[in-house]
Write a structure and sequence with these properties.
The complex is a heterodimer of chains A (385) and B (141). Chain A is an all-alpha fold and 385 residues long. Helices cover 74% and strands 0% of the residues of chain A. Chain A is extended. In chain B, helix 2 runs antiparallel to helix 3. Chain B is elongated and about 110 Å long. Classes of the chains: A mainly alpha (385), B mainly alpha (141). Chains A and B meet through helix 3, helix 4, helix 5, helix 6 and helix 7 of A and helix 1, helix 2 and helix 3 of B.
């Protein structure tokens, strides 16, 4: 019997059994007894059991919606940040406060990771880990833990201070709510972009463009041979016409003076300087790219039509395929225009040394001045004892 | 679906908590940590906007925040050390002689509850001193 040709029931049963066996081994190894106990082996077995169980869940009940994982992580990290932040503020013992601050930083770094900022996550952990350790040393050096003291057991106007802080927070949140309300209610008549620079591509447009790329990939290999009948050829021509129309709905067309969804949304953004705070460079670049695709779309599909319908002056199959491939690459680039680049560190460095070079130099100077200042302050003589 | 607004709200709440801590706490090191927490709230805003717009300028800004936070940590801890040398205390209110003209000084009226040192353990007296009879008294002599 072939082990790799199981039906789903057998697969699920096997996974459950494997998970159960691993769990039994793990618990047997971990349960306390005088001889033969192995913590490492037990934990390894339990982790294996958990992995197999997760694989079973995935196989048997389907993918539990990838967004659920993102949501759970988001709630976990934000609750961690806010909870440990509260501990830091309310804890009497400053050493415990420093530990709570470390957890705030870790939670924030989790949020950074969810927002696709991998380099910042690492940098924040490294820098703040150093800062926290130094702070911790200061706390251990300076704070006497014998008995209550003014600085740890008293607060400066706790009622007014908390009121001021949370009134501020409440106002910020209320402003967020109002802005959110305005942008979502205006989205039907397409005025969203005026309040807040919108992402250049909506999710629907991006999905549609990805779909078009997949279709172009599929069609590229199915160009008709010389022997194809006329009926098949006209059906194929219709198919290509459909793809062309789909591209037109996004980028628009020159012949029918039809404006695509990109143009109608972003054109408003860049064409009305009184409403928009600044010219959105990204939107302008995407519009230029869409215009290029619009023209290419017309031309490529004219050639494809000629070829499919066996027009006397049609181009060769290789040429048509190359044109289709070029169009497909353009559409793919447009679809990825609103995404963060995959190489976070490389692109961050590129941006730092092209657009923000002066700021980098200033930050370096600031660090130098701060170092000199800290040394000169800390080594000052003549302090009043 | 987690949107930009969720991140903005969490960042605002983190900033607010840090603000409350900075306003009310009197330990200078805790105040410093609260200020750092406010910076983290702002950093979350920047990174969320970077994600939303699909470019990296927001993340670059957060790198500058990190640089400024490092400077701030160096200077602030040196200052705290100097103040501790002078006042032998981390209490920021010790320096309220620097306050604005015409503002009355803040005086702590409620006394701190002093922890009573635990009494040393004493043994309960066990047994009684024997009362001697006349014959025993004579025998002892």
């Amino acid at each position: 019997m072939n082990l790799f040709s199981l039906n789903p029931t057998q697969l699920a049963g096997g996974q459950i059994a494997l998970a159960a066996v691993l769990a039994v081994v793990g618990f047997a190894l971990l349960l306390p007894r005088p001889r033969g106990r192995s913590v490492a082996g037990g934990i390894a077995a339990l982790i294996g059991a958990a992995v197999v169980f997760a694989a079973f869940l995935y196989n048997a009940f389907g993918n539990p919606m990838p967004d659920v994982i993102g949501s759970v992580l988001f709630w976990l990290f934000s609750a961690g940040a806010l909870g440990f932040g509260t501990v830091l503020v309310t804890q009497k013992n400053p050493a415990r406060g420093a530990i709570a601050f470390a957890f705030v930083i870790l939670s924030t770094c989790g949020l950074f990771l969810l927002l696709a900022a991998t380099f910042l996550m690492a940098a924040t952990i490294i820098i703040y880990a150093g800062a926290i350790i130094v702070t911790f040393l200061f706390v251990l050096m300076l704070s006497q833990t014998d008995g209550p003291s003014n600085e740890n057991d008293r607060s400066r106007e706790p009622w007014f201070g908390a009121l001021a802080g949370f009134a501020f927070t409440g106002l910020v949140l209320f402003t967020l709510y109002l802005t959110h309300l305005r942008t979502t209610s205006a989205s039907e008549d397409g005025e969203v972009a005026q309040r807040l620079p919108a992402p250049v591509l909506t999710t629907a447009e991006r999905l549609k463009l990805a779909d078009i790329v997949a279709k172009l990939d599929a069609e590229n290999s199915q160009l008709p041979a010389d022997s194809t009948s006329m009926v098949d050829r006209s059906r194929m021509a219709e198919h290509f016409e459909q793809i062309k129309a789909e591209i037109v709905t996004v980028v628009g067309s020159t012949e029918q003076s039809h404006v695509g969804s990109l143009q109608s949304r972003l054109g408003k953004l860049s064409g009305n300087p009184g409403v928009v705070l600044r010219t959105d460079e990204q939107a302008v670049a995407v519009l230029a790219r869409a215009t290029a695709i619009r023209e290419r779309n017309e031309q490529v599909f004219r050639d494809v039509d000629n070829f499919v319908l066996n027009d006397p002056k049609h181009k060769s199959q290789d040429e048509v395929q190359a044109e289709l491939r070029g169009l497909r690459d353009d559409v793919l680039l447009l679809a990825g225009a609103a995404e963060l680049p995959a190489r976070n560190v490389g692109n961050l460095g590129y941006l730092l040394f092209t657009n923000h070079l002066l700021a980098v130099e200033l930050a370096g100077t600031l660090l130098l001045v701060a170092t000199i200042g800290a040394i000169s302050i800390a080594t000052r003589k003549g302090a009043i004892a | 679906m987690i949107t930009l607004w969720h991140y903005l709200a969490v960042a605002a709440a983190l900033f607010g908590i840090g603000l409350v801590g900075f306003l009310t706490r009197r330990n200078m090191i805790t105040m410093f940590l609260c200020a750092e927490m406010m910076l983290q709230g702002v950093a979350i805003n920047f990174v969320a906007f970077a994600r939303y717009h699909g470019n990296l300028h927001g993340q670059v800004f957060v790198m500058f925040i990190l640089a400024v936070a490092a400077c701030e940590a160096g200077i602030a801890l040196a200052l705290v050390l100097m103040l501790y040398k002078r006042g032998k205390s981390l209490d920021a209110s010790d320096w309220q002689s620097l306050r604005e003209l015409g503002v009355p000084p803040a005086i702590d009226t409620v006394p701190l509850d002093i922890e009573k040192p635990e009494a040393e353990p004493t043994l309960a007296p066990a047994g009684v001193r024997p009362t001697l009879t006349a014959s025993e008294e004579a025998a002892r002599v």
